[in-house]
Amino acid sequence: MKRRELIKSSAGLAATSLIPDWVQAIPEHEPFLADKSGTNKSVIPRFGDGRDWFFEFRYGMFVHWGLYSIPGWHEQHQWRARVPRTEYMKLADQWNPVKFNPEAWLDLMEEAGMKYITITTKHHDGFCLWDTKQTGFNTMNTPYKKDVVGLLADACHKRKIPLCFYYSIADWNHPNYPNLGRHHELQPQAQDSPDWDKYLYFLKEQVHELCANYGEIHGFWWDMNVPVYKDPTINAMIRKLQPKAIINNRGFDEGDFGTPERDYDNPATDARAFEKPVEACQSVGMESWGFKKDEDYYSDRHLISSIDKYLARDANYLLNVGPTGEGVIPKESAAILRRIGKWKSAVEESFAKVLPDSELLGIPGVFVTKNDRTLYIHLNKMPVGDGIKLKPISVLPIKATLLNTGKKVDCVVNLCPSDHASQQPYLRLRNLPVNELSNTVLVAKLEFERSLEEIIQPKKIETNIELTK
Predict the structure, then answer these.
(1) C-alpha dihedral (329, 220, 262, 138), degrees to nearest 10
(2) Of 14, 35, 49, 333, which sits most exposed with the smallest number of CB within 10 A?
(3) CB atoms within 10 A of CB 160
(4) Domain 15-349, architecture per CATH
């Protein structure tokens, strides 16, 4: 979102350096679809090109910021509060986020364990956060007179942080956009001249600006293709200008990855595995993605569980914050990110260079990742008790650690009354601190002497002697 010289080297994230050896041989992906068979026990196939940064960075910050941050009610303030366009546009006269400091945003992002950032360059209201030459409704024609996207891009390139751009196809300000009163649209405006071809030309010119004037970018996040218009040449232009940019599925073709939002997408929430890239998105606030003055916030437990659920299935996650009209991320939002960051730092190894294999146990609410001879047990759903039976595993690990605390996990292999019919003992984790750590997701690391294929084979033990560790 800026007309400046192309920065060729400042965002140097060489694709080859981001693709680890263990996934180099993974074939090109098939169309994405939640695995219905429950047999997918591998990572999502990689692209084999510069877009593979996506699979290394996994967890990112989403930022919804614009004029709507000034009244502080909702990012769709104009539409939801029925504000006439002429009145809403006056907010541009107040746009002067003098406290905006991209370095502070990125500091918080990194403290939270996030690895990339996606910002709303233009939301549905049509206000642009960059020096676009296609419309005067932009940050340069305000008291601020600075290119927000340019400032953020410079900071990201300096720190080698992947930068992605959100762009709304629906536009409540542009006279050529055909507002017809459909979902996320205004009613027809008497002063407009609806013309989809002219609007599409405008859109393409803006996308070209974003892809050509801000150095290397790593993603394009479309939203609200209300007309459901298809035109693969638009994404092709993005790929030509920005070959490392991964593109979502809300634009003009199927894109590269799916975008389950909040908790609305039940198939994505319930799937045990994915066959194509997925990036779930959620906001820390329950009502708005943009800044809301009296926001209600999700609990840490809810957000951590949501993040864990997707990362444990080899998917990505974007967690959103809405800065104030001054450009400051609210202290409540920042505190949530930091608390989640502490949890993620403690359990990070359970997401890095691992294979998802939640069908190994098939326990509702429990996800499994694995690597070599190590299993990571994610107690994603709130445990109902302080112990869990890991059927069909009947081998004692040589070491068991709760990653959250670094402390030893009490383990035993013995026969439980509920397994009297089979007379088969199974591995149990006992005395877990479920009450002390009730606002988080517990992740146990189990290390075995044998291969993981061996430890899940049922073994008839002819004695009822208890094995403990």
Answers:
(1) 50
(2) 14
(3) 11
(4) Alpha-Beta Barrel (3.20)
Compute the distance between CA of residue 336 and CA of residue 293 in angstroms, rounded to an integer: 16
> pTM (2 decimals)?
0.88
CA distance linking residue 397 with residue 410, whole number of Å = 11
Summarize pLDDT for 208-238 with one digit per residue, the tens: 999 999 999 999 999 999 999 999 999 999 9
Q: Which secondary-structure segment (H or E) carries 376?
A: strand 374-379
Residues 6+ apart with CB under 8 A from 221: 118, 164, 165, 166, 167, 248, 250, 259
**Is the peptide bond preceding residue 397 cis, with omega within 30 degrees of 0?**
no
What are the structural domain ranges in the chain?
Answer: 15-349, 357-468
DSSP string, 228-248: ----HHHHHHHHHH-TT-EEB
Distance of alpha carbon 382 from alpha carbon 308, whole angstroms: 12
Average pLDDT rounded to a whole number, residues 93-104: 98
Looking at CATH, the fold of the domain delimited by 357-468 is given as Immunoglobulin-like (2.60.40)
DSSP strand pairing (426-430 vs 388-389): antiparallel
Residue 317, both tokens: 């996650």
